[in-house]
Amino acid sequence: MTTYAIGDLQGCHAEFMALLERLTFDPDQDRLWLVGDLVNRGPDSLACLREVMALDKAVQVVLGNHDLHLLAVARGSATLKRKDTLETILQAPDREILLDWLQSRPLLLAEEGRVMTHAGLLPHWSLPQAIELAREVEQRLASDASGAFLEQMYGNEPAHWRDDLDGIERLRFIVNAFTRMRFIDAQGHLDFTAKEGLESAPPGFAPWFTFPRRDDPLIIFGHWAALGGRTVGSQVRAEALDTGCVWGGSLTALNLATGERMNESRHPR
């Protein structure tokens, strides 16, 4: 059995299927870890969502910011943005089945010394603490209060973690740390203004993976296509897997046993 971690699909269904073929992926024997953002901006979000859900026990997925955006549009009060490509899901006859499945995905997966989240792991949180905080959001998404949560989920504040945060502010920070984080400062403040490469860091801020941790899990993440799959200056073991397939780059798979990477370039449309 081989386990592969794959970067942000974002509706790139053709590339996803081509990559699985190159990997000779067998769902009866092999396993997939997907770093979230299954949908949006790409051409075939509905096909991606159906394909991944059909893999059933062969796949494990964490929620990304675009996945949560879909849920917020469908079940909260958010509206579609100009570049969104979510209409086919919202209009699909099986939309509620797909949305129920997506909403039941975790924010964090930890197994055998590896941890996967969409955006990374805040260095100020221990792994046990991060697991517990992720569960707080997952429990809210599974509750009758999920709609109210999705309506209040958006926002950049608070930008700094405190153990005494409560209510929606606590849940919002947890979501932002797991699904939107890029640059932080030494105190753990999140910056949401810079979204490009390392050179775009605001004064006093640096990539989250350049701050050391007290523990040493292998951190698997996506979200940050501008990194090009590289974590320059990293002080932790981190694997960046978003290589910008939806932006004309490639879709990357990582063999978790060997560390070997395989890419599938964007198909011309």
Automatic annotation (TrEMBL):
Record-annotated Calcineurin-like phosphoesterase domain positions: 1-223
Q: Which InterPro entries match?
A: ApaH, Calcineurin-like_PHP, Metallo-depent_PP-like
The record's function comment reads: Hydrolyzes diadenosine 5',5'''-P1,P4-tetraphosphate to yield ADP.
Name the enzyme's class. hydrolase
Tell me what reaction this enzyme catalyses: P(1),P(4)-bis(5'-adenosyl) tetraphosphate + H2O = 2 ADP + 2 H(+)
The record ties this protein, via PANTHER family, to: CYTOCHROME C5 (PTHR40942:SF4), PTHR40942
Provide the GO MF annotations for this entry. Answer: bis(5'-nucleosyl)-tetraphosphatase (symmetrical) activity
Protein name (database record): Bis(5'-nucleosyl)-tetraphosphatase, symmetrical
EC number(s): the record gives 3.6.1.41
Which Gene3D superfamilies does the record cross-reference, listed alphabetically?
Answer: 3.60.21.10
Taxonomy of origin reads: Bacteria, Pseudomonadati, Pseudomonadota, Gammaproteobacteria, Oceanospirillales
User: Keyword annotations for this protein?
Assistant: Hydrolase
Q: Which family does it belong to?
A: Belongs to the Ap4A hydrolase family.
Q: Which Pfam families match?
A: Metallophos
Q: Which NCBIfam families match?
A: apaH, PRK00166.1
